[in-house]
Amino acid sequence: MLPLERKKRIRSLIEKERLIKIAELSNRFGVSEMTIHRDLKPLLEEGCIAKTFGGVAWKQDGQEANTKVQGCVYCGRGYSERLAYRLILSNNRMETACCAHCGLLRHSQMGGEVMQAICSDFLTHTTISAPLSWFVMDTSVHMGCCHPQVLTFEWKEYAEKFVKGFGGHVYSFEEAKTVLVQKMNGGQNNCHSQK
Questions:
Q1: Which phi and psi angles does 154 have, rounded to 5°?
Q2: Alpha-carbon torsion (71, 73, 75, 79), positive or negative
Q3: Residue 23 to residue 32: CA distance in whole angstroms
Q4: What are the tens digits of pLDDT across the range 76-99?
Q5: Which single residue of 59, 140, 147, 185 has CA 20 to 30 Å from 194?
Q6: What b/e sequence results for 155-188 when a residue is b if at least 16 CB atoms lie within 10 Å of its CB, and e otherwise?
């Protein structure tokens, strides 16, 4: 397949699927991931796609992704306010992720652009600062959101009590980001696939 034809097909596929991993594009077109990155460069410059963790997402009508997307800024899924994770960026934009899983991944992706991040305490449903929160992973409680599932707690003491009853591990903000990125890179790179 000629590069020009491949680029057209890639654009069409991203527009149709809305969110796709680089590895998946590489497999579908039988070319290296570096070739896919080169093919995507014009689409990124044009503004019709945006980078995501390990992939790309379609931006509707070339607008900023978070102004049009009705779902999660990271995975595209719809969200409930109870699990939402919000990032306030340096340019006064706000992005909403469907859960702490996607929020932490997006937070890692955006780095220094994130001025503030807020989420909701799993038990009290009050708004809390994400960097000051405690995160529980690998628990037996399933909220029906992205995997590996991440639950947020304002107090470490309550997170630890929760883990005693429902299993899992408690992490600080930085630990949770690191562990989650490692889990996603370790083969669990689809937010919606369960182990």
A1: -75, -35
A2: negative
A3: 9
A4: 888 888 899 999 888 778 899 999
A5: 59
A6: eeebbeebbeeeebebbebeebbebbeebbeeee
